[in-house]
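Supplementary material to the annual report.
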Amino acid sequence: MQNASQALGTIGEELAAQYLSRRGYKILLKNYECDLGEIDLVAKEKGALIFIEVKTRRSDFMGMPAESVTFHKRAQIVKCAQYYMKRYGIKDIPCRFDVVSILMDAENGPLIELIQDAFGGAV
Amino acid sequence: MLATVFSSAVVGIEAYPVDVEVDISNGLPAFDIVGLPDTACRESADRVRAALKNSGLPFPSRRITVNLAPADIKKEGSSFDLAIAVGILAASEIIPAEVLRGRIFCGELSLDGKLRGVTGILPRALCLAAEKSKKAFIIPYDNAREALCARGVEVIPAKTLQDVTAFLKGDLAIAYEEPAQPQKRKETKRSESYPFDFSDIKGQFHAKRGLEIAAAGNHNVLLIGPPGAGKTMLAKRMPTILSEFIFEEALETTKIHSVAGVLLRRSALLEKRPFRDPHHTVSDAAMIGGGSHPRPGEVSLAHNGVLFLDELPEFRRNVLEVLRQPLEEGKVTISRVSSSLTFPSRFMLVAAMNPCPCGYFTDPKRECHCSTMQIRNYMSKISGPLLDRIDIQLEVPCLKVNEITDGTCGENSQTIRARVEAARHRQYERYQRDGLLANANLEAKEVEKHCQVTEEAKRFLKLAIQELGFSARAYHKCLKVARTIADLEGEKDIQAMHVTEAIHYRALDRNMWFRA
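Predicted assembly:
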């Protein structure tokens, strides 16, 4: 069973995947999980491998969704990405970390923002 | 993709070449700088990233590794920003790699892509000039005048990273143009550029004469007198009677100031001799230089100029004692675990002090409240070896009533300076072959050679050694001062009157002030 915030996250990830597909991203994986953590979406765009973190919020009362991708969360995603690349023997390909921030506004519908190359791969 | 950009760094006051190697490879995006960078140097990653983006240039989201070779010398400061940014552009094939050959890059980037001035540009330019390799030196516009002091270096002053990129692509020609206004500055005479003059001081002819001799021969001076007699006033006017810089001196002093970061923005070669007056709370490291990357201290900043120490006994003892080596040798060696560096420090020491803790010991009108012990303690703060190195010791007495109200002011600085220049000129000519500049810098052997005294003068000197207990150094110092006095008069040999005047300037050897 999912609780309310998990359900919101799943909706957000679905919205993000649709949005990115429209922008020319090819979604490879959803919710890649390993012992080090999880990555919401793994995609390819113009020959680059992209790891995507999706953040969904109902309001900006506690700040914009993207703001909650903290140092700790970034480090976890980077480690996870390193594991992913090692696990599947992916070498010598440009990589990137993107963040999709979704604000679920009841009146105007979801507000989606894509931040490309949101952070670096150094931990 | 690999690109190598040429830059340089400074250790002490000398520059050495640094190769900035930039490699861009696939993998998780990262920006690493290796080659022993310090914090300012490592932070250049963030400046370069923002500067490139804000200049409308792409920043590759890939794995970037920057190596500052030679990798075993510590790099400090922000001057590699420009070289790293250009390296990234070349490695990501935005500019062709060939254009980097024969060009040296130095400069700090601001986040909007403008180039900021950095310290130590002159030593770098001189290093290039010495190489005679005809390399172009690409630097921030703010440093242009400083770099142009080194003759024979092609200087390309750029204002922004965009300008540098356009220049490297061949779309823009950059050459230095002197801003329109400084034409007027050349015409103003040097004396007018000081807010004060020797003629501001009434009376004190004895002290003025002493300072004139000091300025002529680069001798060290100590001014002793009660509070309010005008010691500080006299010392502050010292720069107005100093001789003009000769080119080599100016270059050397500017180099030190450039490394220490005390040069004014957009300034060229120093025009005036430096006058440094550190407060008496100064630390020994600040006085002679120091730090883990040794920086020049006050003695080196005063190189070829004046170091003024007001209230000499108030300085910490260890600060005064570290002055011995620079006073004697004209250079100071700073040894740290990692390195040992030598900075030049040929300065003229001008010190001022009171004769006792209350200050009125020699004052004819006011009574001194100090005990003999107190006075002795006060004087003992300045050690014998230090005093021995001071050639001219002047008493600055309190002015008498009529001297204050209607006394004559005496000559102005310009007249005195003309005599100083003439005496200096005689010295330059005499010492040209020995590579010396002034009488005070003579070594023992050269004293014998250049300070010929008449028979009568010799008798006086003998008497002085016997009666006043001169040390061997005091004897030599006395001869050098006599040499300067003779130079001021235009005499070839040292006469008895010159010697007597010189002896007379060693007030503290005459067993005053209860010195044991």
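The mean pLDDT of chain A is 89.
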